[in-house]
Structure formats: structure tokens, C-alpha cells
Amino acid sequence: MSTQAQLELQHTTTWQELEQVLASLESAKFWRKTVDHHRLPDLYAQVCEHLALAQSRGYSARLEQQLDSLAQRAYRQLYRKKVSFFRPFIKFICGGFPRLLRKHGALFALSSALLFVPFLAALLLFFLQPDWIFYLMNHDQVVQIEHMYLRGESAVFGNGRNEADNFQMFGFYIQNNISIDFRCFAGGVFFGLGSVFFLVFNGLHIGSIAGYLSEAGAGHAFWGFVAGHSAPELLGAAVAGAGGLLMGKSLLMPGNKKRWQALAAVAPDALRLVGGAALMTFCAAIIEGFWSALDVPMLVKYSVALLVWTLTLVYLFLVGGKGQGIREH
Amino acid sequence: MLRSTVSVETPEGIELQLPVAGIVVRTLAWSVDFSLRMLIYIFLVVIAGSLIVRSFFDNLGNDQQTAYLVGLGSIVFFLLEWFFTAIPEALYGTTPGKKLLGLRVVHTDGTPLSWQSALLRNFLRFADFLPFFYFSAIVSMLVDSRSRRLGYLAASTMVVYHKSKLNMVQSVTGLGSAAPNLTLSAIERSAILDFDERCEGLNQARQIELAEILTNLNIGSGLEAVNTLRSWARWIRSGKLEAVHEHTSAA
Questions:
Q1: B16 and B129 fall within a common domain
Q2: Which of B65, B110, B124 sits opposite A186 (nearest CB)?
Q3: Nearest by CB to B163, which of A6, A72, A189?
């Protein structure tokens, strides 16, 4: 049976060695973590034993804190999750993401409905009653939209953009559209209400502009521009909304867990969904920035749009086989 | 509600005490990060602005450079808005502001932050902000016993004080030791040891004040009380009679 004085006398060197190991591990940079520290588990186990002794025998608080601090830092190093980025990322794109989305297919269907039903309703409504647009937007906004799409007779919106303009718009689409995805997602933490709001709001917004412009004679200018990137952009927003609804569902129906535990349990899936949504929206921004405004015949535009829609749907519904969700390792 | 440490049991069977950071210190850390982000914005805007103005006066003829800058600026803005704190947290477990105040982010089981948790807790910052100026976060922090905002709850994370390097202090040995005049329990023994160790950092008046709380133990008054307690501490630390004490308290 050792006393505090004996424990300190015998093991101070052990503690100092662990301190050195930890110091070098903590100062190691993340991009070259190659320091060899095979002694860490052994030293950690010893310190755990000493800490347990100190706690149970009522050794002084100073010694206990000292050992607790060492143990905490070693614990943090030992249980660090292995960071591998590229392989999981590739696997996610090549099957993990569509599989995960199909696992939460019902929520995806719901969020798509929350986006597309208001979209179609607004499209129809403002096509029949274009004056009602002033209930949604003020005069300046309407003038601005008309100015954007009604310049030429048949030309697609944005014709005559040069490469620099294309890049400027690409940056803007990334910033604006991926932020919309993130908001659709994050709002879900309020029992899903935020996601519902942002999905319906965006559906109404896009639908009202589409309906108004179609009626005002800018149909080709508008549809020719948006058709190409509409699939990944709209479905991406719906995927992000599904992630938010997943969080909302866990809070509304937590089962036999506490609500916040249920939320934490679905959080990894929800985060992967919004990650996939961001990737889809990123693809949409590339198309929107560098293709949608090109001056090509309408037939080509609509053919490409059909192709993109087919590819997107095939990807989401067929790629990745029949498994459920993410396969670990 | 007022407990400020969370104990985490590790697979090795020990309990680590994690000191959880409160609202005030975290708000300070947030202010530092926020100010830093604003400084970066100002810096970038000044640089981009001066480039744009120069190309305007050089009359280079087109707005191409401006368009590229605006596009790039949008992307940088997007990254700073959503990832400015997430990336340093994922890589180092802390942000500049948190590091300045000695804080770090860990999972609620004490393990280091993963990429997923870092991203999630920062994406949900948007929800925490709603409907205005972190209202949801404030409500959540006031309700939760560990003052976590929504992002922390979803990602199972918390902010703790970083245990920095401690100086290894050896106990003072030597000098006279004396047996206590009564049987002490484990808690009492460790209280006396703590007193002895804290004495190094206290002035004499405070030492006496603390020692004299134990008037009913007949340890005298003034410096005498301090010295008696410290001699007991040496006795306890060297382990003399410890077996006997265990024995008597068990009996």
C-alpha cells in the first residue's frame, strides 16, 4: 500500500514522460501527424491507475488535479477519431448519398411536395392573375425582374455575358443558393417548422416569378435560362429540407429517448443529407454560371435540361444499390 | 444548475472532471471570433476596393477584373459565413477566440470534436440566431443545465476549459511531522492536505484565518494552529498510522 509521498516519489518520472509525449502530440500539426508515440497507451493506463488511487484514498486535491489533467489530455489524444477525408467523400458521392436519401425517402417526398406544390400553385396563379404579383413583391422588385428578362424578344436571360461575368454569377450562386440549402436545413431544429417555412417560401417565390414572366411574354427568356440547372438546384433544396425535417421528426417523435438525445441520434444522417444537398447545389451553380446563359438554340437548351433531369433522378433513385444509408468502412 | 464540472467515465474506469465553460466566457470568445471575422472582411474589402479603383483610373477598358473579384468575394463571403469557426474547431478543437480564453470544444463524452460535429454545431448557428440576435440560443442556454445552445445539443458537444500544462509540484517533505490528536476520515485528511498545499500561495493572515476555523480541535491559535495542521499534513502524506486509521474507521 503506497502513500501519497511514495506514489509521487516512484512515479513522477512516469508523469513527466507522459507530459513530454503529450506536449509533442499537442504541438504536432494536423497535416503531418507522424510522431511515433507507442508509449502513450501504457503511460495513460498507469496514470489512470494512479488517479483512481488518488481519488479513492483522498490524496491531496493538487495531486488529483495534476493526474486528472494528464489523464484528460491523454484521453483526448488516444480517443481522437481517425481523420480520413477523401475515401469517405468519394464513397459518399458514389452511392452513400443516394442510398441515404432513399433511406429517408418519405421525408424527401414530403419536402419535395412542400417545395413543388407551392411552386406549381404560384406558377398557375400568377400566370392567370399576374397583377397579384404585387401582393408578394413591391413595384421596384417587379420592375427589376422585368428588366432582367424582358430586354430581348426571344433571347435567353443573360445572353452576352462574358467569362468574367459568368464567374461573378457563379460565385453569387454558390453564396446565395447553398446558403438557402443551409437555412432550409438549420430551420428544421425548430420541430421542422423552419424547414417547412423556407421550402414553402422558396417554392412560392420561384413559382410566382415563373408564372408572372411566362404571362408577360418572357417565357423563353426565363425557362430557357433556368431549365438547365433546375434539377440539381430544386432537388438539392428539397434534400436539404429533408435533412431539416429529419431533425424535426426526431424532436416531434423522439420514441423512448429524450428529445435532445433523439436529435443527436439522427444528426449524422441529417448532416450528410445537407452535405449532399450542398454538392448538388454546387453542381447547379456550375451549370447556372457557365451554361445557362449561353446563346444556343432553345431546342438544345431544353434537350440538355431533359438530360440533366434524367441524370439527376437516375442518380438519386438508382445509384448505390439497395442497401440502407451509409455503409461504414 | 450551478454545477460547473461534468464527470465523464472513461473505458479505463476512471472519472475525468471536465470543467464546463459558462455563458459569459463563451460570449466573450464569440465576440473575439466575430471581431476577427469583421476585421478580415474589412481587410478584404479594402484590398478589393483599391484594386477596383485602380483599374478604374488606369482605364483598362473593361469591368472584367471587377467581375472576377466580385465572384471570388461572394465565394469567400460564403465560406467565412458558414465555415469560419467550423474549420478551426474540426482541425484544432478550438477557435482563435476560444483559444484566447482557454476554451476548447469536445463531445459530451470528452472525446475530441469530429468533422461532422464541428460542421453541424456551426450550421445550426443560423437556427440559434433566429428570430433575432441569438434569441433561440439564449432561451436554450437558459433552459439547459449545461447552458448548451441548439447546435451543441444536436452535435452532442460542449465547451470546456482547456487543461493546460501544469507544473509538476512535489509535495514538501522534511521538517517535523506530528500525529493528529484524533481519527480523521478520508475527506478530512484530504482537506488538511489541501490546506497544507494552498499555504504556499497564501499570506500569513489568511493562513491563520483558515486554520482557526478548527477551534474545537484544540490546535491552539494563530501561527501555532497553522503549524499544527501542516505538521499533521506531513504525517498524513508520509502515510504513518494510515493503516490504523483505516482500521478504526472500519470498526
A1: yes
A2: B124
A3: A72
Please tell me the total number of residues recorded for chain A in this structure.
329
Backbone angles phi, psi at B20, to 5 degrees: -80, 135
Interface of B with A in 225-244 (CB under 8 A): 236-239, 242-243
Q: Is residue B174 part of a domain?
A: no
CA A228 from centre of chain? 23
One domain for residues B157 and B190: no
CA nearest B228: which of B244, B215, B247?
A: B215
Report the residue from B112, B130, B168 with minimal CB separation from A76.
B112
Helix (H) / strand (E) element for A206: namely: helix A193-215
Considering the domain architecture, whether residues B140 and B46 belong to the same structural domain is answered as: yes
Q: Please indicate, yes or no, whether residues B228 and B138 belong to a single structural domain of this protein.
A: no
Interface pTM, i.e. ipTM: 0.81
What is the pTM assigned to this prediction? Answer: 0.79
Per-residue pLDDT reduced to its tens digit, B188-229 = 887 888 888 888 788 888 888 888 887 777 777 778 888 888
The count of domains in chain B is 2
Tens digit of each residue's pLDDT (9 = 90 or more) over B85-97: 999 998 888 999 9
Q: Which helix (H) or strand (E) holds B19?
A: strand B15-19
Q: Clarify whether residues B143 and B218 are in a common domain.
A: no
Range of the domain at B222: 186-246
Give residue A91's identity as a one-letter amino acid code. Answer: K
Strand partners for B18: B6
The residue of chain B with its CA nearest to that of A80 is B112
A79/A87 Cα distance (integer angstroms): 21
